[in-house]
């Protein structure tokens, strides 16, 4: 007997049984605990006072009414005892939900069908089976040569190594808000170097090099403007005039 399985089945039956009230469920749980203590015996004896204390039932009439109703509804079999020194006998009903019964019946049916249709010996597979030949012919190439998938191993050629002409460079510099004169300087400089870097490496992307050129131009331009500003200030400080007033104190 599976304790958890039986208890879950009981709770599932409680859910759909509208005749039950909390007193019925409390009494059933007290009886279930006694059943578990007796290792799920087919029959076991109970003491009314102990059951009433565990189930928290304070009235004898309520106890007798609930246990008789559960007997009538098929939850248990109640065999009362008239002997005060001997407890009443209880037989708990094994509750199984319809789903479990259906699954067990299906398993038995499948086992019977498997026994009926199980072959006595495995038939030998013919080597000259037409089905296997068709499968082999399906994968056989027409010309008798294995088909090898074409793999394109050619590397993509980088078209941005060198500009097409001077016009492409001037257009690129103009788009970046630089003058055409600066673009002409860039083109002539790297044209003389055969489009190679300072370490004699071939340029892979002339546009990236052009952007670096523009950044340097902006950097040097800002530095030159600051130097010119400082120089002009120094010149103003050194300005002198020939008209001097020697009457003013030094």
From TrEMBL:
Residues 225-250 are annotated as: Disordered. Residues 236-250 have a biased composition (Basic and acidic residues). This is Uncharacterized protein. It comes from Antarcticibacterium flavum.
């Amino acid at each position: 007997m599976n304790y958890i399985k039986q208890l879950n089945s009981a709770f599932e039956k409680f859910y759909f049984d509208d005749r039950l009230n909390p007193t019925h469920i409390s009494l059933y749980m007290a009886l279930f605990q006694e059943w578990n203590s007796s290792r799920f015996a087919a029959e076991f004896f109970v003491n009314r006072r102990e059951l009433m204390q565990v189930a928290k039932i304070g009235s004898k009439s309520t106890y007798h009414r609930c246990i008789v109703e559960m007997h009538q509804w098929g939850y248990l079999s109640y065999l009362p005892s008239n002997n005060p020194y001997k407890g009443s006998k209880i037989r708990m009903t094994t509750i199984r939900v319809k789903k479990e019964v259906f699954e067990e019946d299906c398993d038995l049916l499948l086992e019977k069908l498997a026994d009926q249709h199980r072959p006595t010996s495995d038939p030998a597979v013919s080597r000259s089976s037409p089905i296997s030949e068709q499968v082999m012919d399906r994968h056989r190439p027409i010309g008798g040569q294995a088909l090898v998938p074409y793999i394109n191993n050619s590397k993509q050629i980088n078209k941005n190594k060198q500009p097409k002409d001077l016009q492409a460079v001037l257009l690129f510099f103009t788009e970046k808000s630089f003058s055409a004169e600066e673009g002409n300087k860039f083109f002539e400089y790297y044209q003389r170097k055969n489009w190679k870097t300072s370490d004699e490496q071939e340029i892979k992307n002339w546009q990236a090099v052009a952007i670096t050129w523009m950044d340097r131009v902006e950097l040097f331009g800002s530095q030159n403007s600051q130097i010119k500003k400082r120089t002009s200030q120094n010149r103003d400080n050194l300005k002198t005039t020939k008209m001097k007033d020697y009457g003013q104190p030094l």
